[in-house]
Amino acid sequence: MRRTVIVGTGRYIPTRRVSNDEFLNNRFFMDYDQPIDTDDNEKTVGRFQEITEIGERRFAEDDQVASDLGFLAAEKAIEDSGIDPERLDYIIFAHNFGDVLANNRRSDFCPSLAARVKQHLKIENPECIAYDLPFGCPGWVQGVIQADYFLRSGDANRALVIGGETLSRISDPHDRDSMIYSDGAGATVLEARETDEDVGVLGHAARSDTIDHARLLWMGESYDQSNGDETLYLKMYGRKLYNYALTNVPGVVKKSLERAGLNLTDVRKVFLHQANAKMDDAILKRLFKLYQVNEIPEGIMPMSISWLGNSSVATVPTLVDLVARGEMNGQQLNSGDTVILASVGAGMNVNSVVYRWV
Fold first, then answer.
1. Common-topology check for domains 2-194 and 200-356
2. pLDDT digits over 292-318, tens only?
3. CA separation for the pair 77, 190 (Å, rounded)
C-alpha cells in the first residue's frame, strides 16, 4: 500500500522576543470609539496572560517577510530529510496574508510565496510545482491533506509543505487581541512509501462553515480612528470563535480517527493549533468527553503558546518539529506513535489528520 510519511521537519522561530510588558503603554480600545483607560493596562495585560498563557511571542526582523521565514524552515526540513530538493514534486506554502513589509502593510502575493521559496532553494526542476494555499490557521494541515492525495495517487513522490506567517504586521496595536499574534514558520517533507504497515497518514477529515461563521475573523481599520489610519488589520469576534472551535474541533478529530479505524486511546500526542491556552484545553477536554474517557494523559497536548504566541499556520508544524527533535520539555516521538494534527481558523475551517510516526 502506498503511504504518505514524514521524512523531514524544520522550523524557523524569529529571534526577536516581545514580552507582555511591551504592551503596557499601548492605547487599547474595546471596540471602535470605546477606549480603555491606560491606567488599566497592567490589569488588561495581566488578565490576557491569565486566559491565554502567553507571556511572550516572537516577531520577525524588519528585513524579513513570511517567505523568508518559510524558506529558512524549508531548508531545515530538507536537510533533515536528506533528499535532493530537485526531487521535490510539490512545494505548498500555506499562509493567509502573503509577504507584508515592515514599512508597507500591504499583502504581496505575486509571485506566490511558494515560488519565492523554490527560487531561494535554487530548484531548477520545472516539474516541481510551487503554489500557495491561503487557508488561514488550518492551512498547513490542509496542505498535508492535499499532499497526501498527490502522493497516494502516484502523481507525486515527494512534497514540501510549509506554513508561515507574520501576524505582527497585520495586527492593530490598539486592539487587545494584538497581544495574541506572533510570527514564525514550520515545514515538513512528505514522501510516498510502499509498505504493508499502517504508518504515515492514516486518515483525515475537514469541514468549512461559511453561512454564519465566514466573518468571525475579518479585516478592518484600526480601533483608534483619531489618526486617519486606513490600513486594514486582522480582527476577530473572540467569544464566537471560541464557541465555534469548542463545538466543531472535537467532532472533526473524532471523524478523522474513525476514518483511520482508531480510538482516542490509540493517540499519544495531539498537536492542536496554539491559539489560546484556555480554548485548547477546553477542546481537549471535550474531545475526551466524546470518548467517555475521564483521565487525560499528562503531556498528550504539547503547548508552545506561552513563549511563542499564536503564529497561525506555523503553530502545528513548529510543534511537530520541536517534539520530533526532542526539544520540547524532553518530549519525544517514537516509531509507532499515533498523533493528531488539527487546526481551526479563518473561513471558518476545521481539519484533522491522523498520523502514525515512522
1. yes
2. 999 999 999 999 999 999 999 999 999
3. 10
The DSSP code sequence of 115-163 is HHHHHHTT---TTSEEEEEE-STTHHHHHHHHHHHHHHHTS-SEEEEEE
User: What are 6's three cell numbers?
Assistant: 514524514
CA distance 83 to 344: 31
Task: Find out whether 163 and 313 touch, Cβ atoms under 8 Å.
Answer: yes
Q: How far apart are CA 173 and CA 99, in angstroms?
A: 19
Q: Which three cell numbers stand for residue 267?
A: 493517540
For the question of whether the overall pTM of this predicted structure is more than 0.85, the answer is: yes
CB neighbours of residue 327 within 10 Å: 12
200-356 to CATH, choices 3.90.1210.10, 3.40.47.10, 1.10.10.250, 3.40.1790.10: 3.40.47.10
> What's the CA gap between 234 and 243, in Å, rounded?
19
Residue 345 has pLDDT above 90, yes or no: yes
Distance in angstroms (rounded) separating the CA atoms of residues 335 and 313: 26
Please give the Cα distance from 15 to 171 (Å, whole number). 19
- For 301, residues 6+ apart whose C-beta sits below 8 A from its C-beta are 269, 270, 271, 272, 280, 281, 284
What kind of fold does domain 2-194 have according to CATH? Answer: Peroxisomal Thiolase; Chain A, domain 1 (3.40.47)
Question: Hunting for cell 488589520 — which residue is that?
Answer: 233
pLDDT in tens, 74-125: 999 999 999 999 999 999 999 999 999 998 888 999 999 999 999 999 999 9
Give the amino acid at 299: G
Domain boundaries, the chain: 2-194, 200-356
CB neighbours (10 Å) of residue 64? Answer: 20
